[in-house]
Amino acid sequence: MSSIQHLRDIADLNTDNVRTLLSRARFFKDALDNKKDVSDKHRGKVGLSFFVENSTRTRISFEMAALRLGISMIHWDSASSSLSKGESFDDTIETLAALAPDVLIMRHSEYNAPRSVARYMPCPVVNGGDSYRAHPTQALLDLMTIEEHKGDVSKLKIAICGDIAHSRVARSNAALLDMLGADIHMVAPEYLLPQELPYKNATAYTSLDEGIKDCDVVMMLRLQKERMTQGLISSDQDYFNSFGLTHERLKHAKADAVVMHPGPMNRGVEIDNAVADDPHISLIRAQVANGVPMRMAVLDWLLEQNEA
Ligand code: NCD
What we know:
4-stranded parallel β-sheet
């Protein structure tokens, strides 16, 4: 089973794979915009989505992507499953594997959970986010959105700002942008900056104003209190005062800089309402919209790889 192509993290991809996914995502976006039915190729396949952590946009956009491709989806709900009857996680996964789905899409709070699940699965496993480690499809849809608005990322300065320590979005984005040669600024207060930044082209900053200086893209992250030890943040207001993105602060970035956020946003904590809702600079809704065609591209490509 080791030859199955999965998407557990960005390390599962090379630059050719990324270019293939971007071009397929553009194809699917065009099909969706023109109401073209693309559900023939994968009709009859059955996918399983298995989200053991809360999600709104990721889960719905994966399911929408699968349905648009003709894949029927079953959503497996951990709360009403045999896990709540005391079955071990491994037994549950072996049971799901025995049912032989065509693809498994999962989100889990445990570090690297998709890697252990993939060992049992007779089909591709797609990571919809695990722990603070990886969220590869978010990074891919962010890349698609950046390229649509700003072109080739190897010519761009991109700031990833906020709670980097607890963010799988930050890690997958940095890994992907690094692979493609972008100039990455990792911007966080000292206590939210990881000890190691294992990227070739990344520089750490602890001041927001300095970190976003001359950047083309400013990507904000949610303060992930559910992953923090208590007392790390004194108050939301203090955090906003030092790290919240306002129009005033954004003047440090390039004059035509765009703003991104993977959602869910905490308005007034990491981002000001006026910035989040500014149609001239905010790509936040465009990111959500691109989630569907990019996840269609990922599912289509993985299924095709495993048929070959
Ligand atoms: C993020 C996630 O769940 O990793 N959201 C998302 O998938 N778009 C970020 C977050 O929780 O802050």
